[in-house]
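Researcher: Next entry in the queue.
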Amino acid sequence: RPSLKMVQVLNQEGYLQARVVVNPDSSHISGWGAIYSIDLGDRWRINNVIWNFATSGLPEEVIREEGLLKIGSPVSISDLHDERERISRLAGSLGFATFNEGFIKFELDTFNLDGCVNVEILLRGQRLEGTSATIPHKSVKIGSVYFDQSQMTKSLKTSILTHLVTLEEGEGFDPAKFE
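Model: Structure for this entry, 179 residues:
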């Protein structure tokens, strides 16, 4: 089992042809041990990054601009995870409140490629309830920010409230600011 776990971790870091063999070792005074022989093989690299915005509604040029996945970089599941988080966080800051990590899908194509992977990043739109149709996510902007102090016995100064509340008129509705 440990050897299977090792192969799994190595695969996640781009060693897609890694092999681990365990051999018993009886040379220990205290009993048997194990010798792991690891053959990493070549580390696979990104050949191409293909963006598919489908019906996402997200601004392609803004989302692509700071992409973490680069041609020639080693394949890494942790990098895919980081890219998923980056896209989701950026979409939220742009006002796409309905977009989250669940709308991001990665497809890795190794077919007919020697040591290289084509990575497709698919950003989906929203599925309409009860149908198979998808629609683009909409960007929501903050209209006006109003502080209702009518129920307070002592009002706070507006300068204090604007310092504490980071919402600004006209900026994208970012759900993270409400957490």
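Model: The chain has a mean pLDDT of 89.
Researcher: Noted, moving on.
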